[in-house]
């Protein structure tokens, strides 16, 4: 790129000469001494990328404020699917929970960390789902390892109905089974207890209705051939352990060395001399034929996210993304790479780069690498995701003891705090919400710990600045990134109440979220599907709003709609950015 560009940042941006006060301790500008409503800095785009006119930053003072123009190459945002655009231009949609939170506690106290709940027998009813939505569930996860497609379809229907009838924007994430080795479904039993010293049979034979006592089926045909006498067999990452004693045809006799509860379809790994054995099962495809059918199901149901289990390489993600694109022109399903195998750690950056987000799936990850390596892997994945601008979910065993007990352990609270402190986009409940005794209580713990830790770290100003590399490929993308970095920095320095972002595809909102600003981000988008997808990203409060290319009009409309609902008030200080007209505007709410 030969053209030079003046990207404005707070350091090279000239504000009007008019003095304005330093942020006071409550970090709120008195509207009387500073009239930010009139400051508008725009990066307008020239239509000719090769234009010889040199880019310029113009700051003009229109009375008391200023406006700046910065020219650049044309931006290209793709138009979202027309089908999902809601034509009602007079309303704004936000979920009832956020609305109450904003009204009662103000901007600062809103939760920035998003919450994902796995839906299972304990939470599949409409009322239970509603209780989770009221409790702050942003994304409902359905795990295709369990239940029938018909069961999952009903859950999706209920979540949809909840969104329609009660104004929520709960997104749906479908998680594939993947083709690693796991046990069968225990013939319908909810669990099986293995006691110390007991002999259990792991068999590749399928059992119809009658499962012989102390026998479990294993889904991998090569199992009996690949294991050796003396191997250690770990169920669910070591929750239960066995030693292989004898092989009899398709049956493998094992002695329980670490007793515990085995759940249906629990994952099985085997170890030899302290290392994970990956014989022919290493060749199992990431996406099995059953997974492809589940993916077709997810596409036809219009789920918002598909999470792929046991990803090994970026190719499988790229392949799936083109498969989805060819089959679902109207909806845009985001693909989340689950990082839960040794192979995925080896190819981490390429996999995350190819995906729309990632999950630190600590359950299986902890079965493939030594447990003491899981925390550093988590930190690394969270950091790479933030740098590459991909949402990241920290999952598994966050509040494991709450499957049975109404209060978490102190260690669990510390674990949740750590994920919040790392500023992961989202935390996930698995068994706690799918089949535990206290799904709502577990969600409430995630909620209160998140809010508390976020507030604490904001107040202490403990967050280290993170180097955010350029992620976009076009010049226009770079401008959007710089705008977001500058806007977030300005928002922190000026102590504004909220950042507003008007975004058609959601991209600009995600770039702002990546900066992890101190104030919440109101993300306005015209489609319900983008709004749902943004619900996974840190700090974003997604609104559905029809808007035009006239930012002045958009802002006035937003202010009056939000004021009418008591969600903002006169005098609130806001910074607005948009991907319609690449710009930063500082405004006080009239
Ligand atoms: N749809 C479902 N029907 C029945 N039980 C379910 C369902 N979803 C989850 N569960 C139960 O909740 C437990 C925890 O759920 P989770 O989604 O973490 O599954 P998992 O088997 O550990 O697999 P994964 O590694 O894919 O997360 C499961 O082991 C299962 O017992
Ligand atoms: C979530 C998941 O798949 C795991 O932790 O293994
Ligand atoms: K799964
Ligand atoms: Mg897993």
From TrEMBL:
Under SUPFAM superfamilies, the record lists:
Phosphoenolpyruvate/pyruvate domain, PK beta-barrel domain-like, PK C-terminal domain-like
The cofactors required by this protein are: Mg(2+); K(+)
Compositional bias ranges of the Polar residues kind: 1-15, 23-35, 56-76
Which stretches are annotated as coiled coil? none
- GO terms of molecular function: ATP binding; kinase activity; magnesium ion binding; potassium ion binding; pyruvate kinase activity
User: Can you give the residue ranges of the Pyruvate kinase barrel domain?
Assistant: 111-442
Q: Which reaction does it catalyse?
A: pyruvate + ATP = phosphoenolpyruvate + ADP + H(+)
- Any idea where this protein resides? Plastid, Chloroplast
Q: Which residues form the Pyruvate kinase C-terminal domain?
A: 481-579
* Key words, A-Z: ATP-binding, Chloroplast, Glycolysis, Kinase, Magnesium, Metal-binding, Nucleotide-binding, Plastid, Potassium, Pyruvate, Transferase, Transit peptide
Give the region (Disordered) as residue ranges: 1-90
Q: Which Gene3D superfamilies match?
A: Phosphoenolpyruvate-binding domains, PK beta-barrel domain-like, Pyruvate kinase, C-terminal domain
Q: Which GO terms describe its biological process?
A: glycolytic process
The pathway to which it is assigned is: Carbohydrate degradation; glycolysis; pyruvate from D-glyceraldehyde 3-phosphate: step 5/5
Where does the source fall among the domains of life? Eukaryota
Which Pfam family, an example, fits this chain? PK
Q: What is its EC number?
A: 2.7.1.40
Transmembrane stretches in the record are none
Q: Where is the composition biased (Low complexity)?
A: 44-55
State the GO CC annotations. Answer: chloroplast stroma; cytoplasm
Q: Name the enzyme group at the top EC level.
A: transferase
> What family does this belong to?
Belongs to the pyruvate kinase family.
What is known about its subunit structure? Oligomer of alpha and beta subunits.
The molecule here is called: Pyruvate kinase
Q: Give the organism, scientific name.
A: Populus trichocarpa (Western balsam poplar)
Lineage, broadest ranks: Eukaryota, Viridiplantae, Streptophyta, Embryophyta, Tracheophyta
């Amino acid at each position: 790129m030969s053209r030079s560009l003046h990207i404005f940042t707070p350091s090279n941006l000239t504000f009007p000469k008019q003095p304005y006060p330093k942020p006071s301790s409550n970090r709120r500008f008195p509207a009387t001494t500073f009239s930010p409503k009139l400051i508008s800095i725009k990066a307008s785009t020239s239509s000719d990328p090769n234009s010889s006119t040199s880019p310029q930053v113009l700051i003009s003072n229109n009375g008391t404020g200023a406006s700046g123009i910065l020219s650049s190459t044309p931006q290209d945002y793709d138009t979202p699917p027309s089908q999902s655009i809601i034509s009602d231009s007079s309303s704004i949609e936000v979920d009832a929970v956020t609305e109450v939170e904003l009204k009662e506690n103000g901007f600062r106290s809103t939760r920035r960390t998003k919450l994902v709940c796995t839906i299972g027998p304990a939470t599949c009813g409409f009322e239970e789902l509603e209780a989770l939505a009221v409790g702050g569930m942003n994304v409902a996860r359905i795990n295709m390892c369990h239940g029938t497609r018909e069961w999952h379809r009903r859950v999706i229907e209920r979540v949809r109905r909840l969104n329609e009838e009660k104004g929520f924007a709960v997104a749906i994430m479908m998680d594939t089974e993947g083709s690693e080795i796991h046990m069968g479904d225990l013939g319908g039993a909810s669990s099986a207890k293995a006691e110390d010293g007991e002999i259990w049979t792991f068999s590749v034979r399928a059992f119809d209705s009658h499962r012989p006592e102390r026998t479990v089926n294993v889904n991998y045909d090569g199992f009996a051939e690949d294991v050796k006498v003396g191997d250690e067999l770990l169920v669910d990452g070591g929750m239960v352990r066995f030693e292989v004693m004898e092989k009899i045809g398709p049956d493998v006799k094992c002695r329980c060395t670490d007793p515990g509860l085995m759940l249906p379809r629990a994952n099985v790994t085997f170890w030899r001399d302290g290392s994970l054995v990956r014989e022919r099962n290493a060749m199992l495809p990431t996406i099995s034929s059953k997974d492809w059918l589940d993916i077709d199901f997810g596409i036809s149901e219009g789920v918002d996210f598909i999470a792929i289990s046991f990803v090994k390489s970026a190719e499988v993600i790229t392949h799936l993304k083109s498969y989805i694109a060819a089959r679902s022109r109207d909806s845009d399903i985001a693909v989340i790479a689950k990082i839960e195998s040794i192979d995925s750690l080896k190819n981490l950056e390429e996999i995350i780069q190819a995906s729309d987000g990632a999950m630190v799936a600590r359950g299986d990850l902890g079965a493939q690498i030594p447990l003491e390596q899981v925390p550093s892997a988590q930190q690394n994945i969270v950091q790479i995701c933030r740098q590459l601008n991909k949402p990241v979910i920290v999952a598994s065993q966050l509040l494991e003891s709450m499957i049975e007990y109404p209060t978490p352990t102190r260690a669990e609270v510390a674990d949740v705090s750590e994920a919040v402190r790392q500023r992961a986009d989202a935390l996930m409940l698995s068994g706690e919400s799918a089949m535990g005794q206290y799904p709502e209580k577990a969600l409430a713990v995630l909620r209160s710990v998140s809010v508390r830790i976020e507030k604490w770290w904001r107040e202490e100003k403990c967050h280290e600045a993170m180097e955010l590399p350029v992620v976009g490929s076009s010049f226009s993308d770079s401008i959007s990134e710089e705008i977001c970095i500058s806007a977030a920095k300005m928002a922190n320095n000026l102590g504004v109440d909220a950042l507003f972002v008007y975004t058609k595809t959601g991209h600009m909102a995600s770039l702002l979220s990546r900066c992890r600003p101190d104030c919440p981000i109101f993300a306005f988008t015209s489609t319900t599907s983008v709004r749902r997808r943004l619900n996974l990203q840190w700090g974003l409060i997604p609104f559905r709003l029809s808007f035009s290319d006239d930012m002045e009009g958009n802002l006035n409309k937003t202010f009056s709609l939000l004021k009418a609902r008591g969600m903002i008030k006169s005098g609130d200080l806001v910074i607005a950015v948009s991907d319609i007209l690449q710009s930063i505007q500082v405004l006080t709410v009239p």
